[in-house]
Write a structure and sequence with these properties.
The chain has about 280 residues and is α+β, with helices and mostly antiparallel strands. It is about 40% helix and about 10% strand. It contains nine helices and eight strands. The strands form three sheets. It has a four-stranded antiparallel beta sheet with strand order 5-6-8-7, sandwiched between helices. Strands 1-2 form a two-stranded parallel sheet. A hairpin with a 2-residue loop joins strand 3 and strand 4. Helix 2 packs across helix 3 (about 60-75) and helix 6 (about 145-160) crosses helix 7. The longest helix has 28 residues, at about 5-30. The radius of gyration is 23 Å and the shape is globular.
Length: about 280
């Protein structure tokens, strides 16, 4: 057969048409997949495990359910536990899935990161509103934090006429009195030594405004000086004890072992929020 210019051009056109058609099919398939909102999955992963019952986190049920169905399909979660409640069984199942991907340490804590969640969703769901910590070796005022926490602190700092000074950063286990809350990401302690009482509470308010669970600690509560303890809501790297503090904050408690009522004056309390939601409100 003699290959003419017309034949070659016609074949090229046919190939191009087929490629376009194939792309359209793939796009249709992708659009047909459910979208899993990572923010809501992370919210459920922080609020559900400490609950005294199997209550569901508002608006998160459908998104958690897709994650659990995918974990079950891969053999990490019993089908009887696919219920939309991101409890301890789902945390353990997701941690096993993370380990199967080669993750270790804080990266296998049972809390979705954007990469593992996207991989889990292959041919099952897409991921919307992804939450990323960024670099885990960033710093703020010389103390180690991840990039997301750094950005949150910078914004809270900008709301004040004095500077936020950290006395302890994240990813550290050097302070036994912290009960492991600083072992992961998103948790910091802030020095208030040079601040007035009003400035201390205003700092708590600024931190809560941008998405931290934050409390002013005092010496009567433990073996520590006055300081502010803050945990970034929805941080994927957060240690389990810090995640439990998010639940305490959500229900109006103090984040300590006694789970007493939050003693923050009403003038300095803010509606529960997180960094990404706060940025959307600007």
């Amino acid at each position: 057969m003699t290959l003419t210019r017309r034949w070659i051009l016609s074949r090229g056109a046919a190939t191009a048409v087929a490629a376009v058609a194939g792309s359209a099919v793939l796009a249709d398939r992708a659009s047909a997949l459910p979208a899993v909102d990572m923010e809501l999955v992370l919210l459920a992963a922080e609020l559900d495990p400490p609950k005294p019952d199997e209550g569901l986190t508002p608006n998160a049920y459908a998104h958690v359910l897709e994650v659990e169905k995918a974990l079950s399909a891969k053999g990490f979660l019993s089908s009887s536990l696919v219920d939309g409640h991101y409890g301890t069984s789902t945390v353990s199942a997701y941690a096993a899935y993370q380990r199967s991907l080669g993750y270790t340490g804080i990266n296998a804590n049972g809390i979705p990161g954007p990469t593992s969640l996207t991989t889990l969703g292959t041919n099952r769901f897409t991921v919307s509103r992804a939450v990323s910590t960024g670099s885990t070796t960033d710093s703020y005022g010389g103390e180690r934090v991840n990039t997301r926490t750094k950005n949150m602190l910078a914004k809270a700092d900008s709301l004040l006429s004095w500077s936020i000074t950290l006395s302890q950063g994240s990813y550290t286990s050097t302070n036994p009195s912290s009960a492991g809350t600083h072992d992961g990401g998103g948790v910091v302690d802030i020095s208030v030594t040079n601040l007035t009482t009003t400035q201390r509470w205003q700092t708590v308010k600024a931190l809560r405004t941008v998405g931290f669970a934050a409390w002013l600690r005092n010496p009567s509560q433990g073996d520590w000086p006055y300081h502010i303890h803050a945990a970034a809501v929805l941080d994927p790297d957060m240690a389990p004890t810090a995640r439990d503090q998010i639940y305490d904050y959500y229900i109006g408690k103090n984040g300590l072992a006694n789970h007493a009522a939050d003693d923050t004056p009403s003038a300095y309390r803010m509606p529960f929020t997180w960094w990404e939601q706060y940025k959307r409100s600007l």
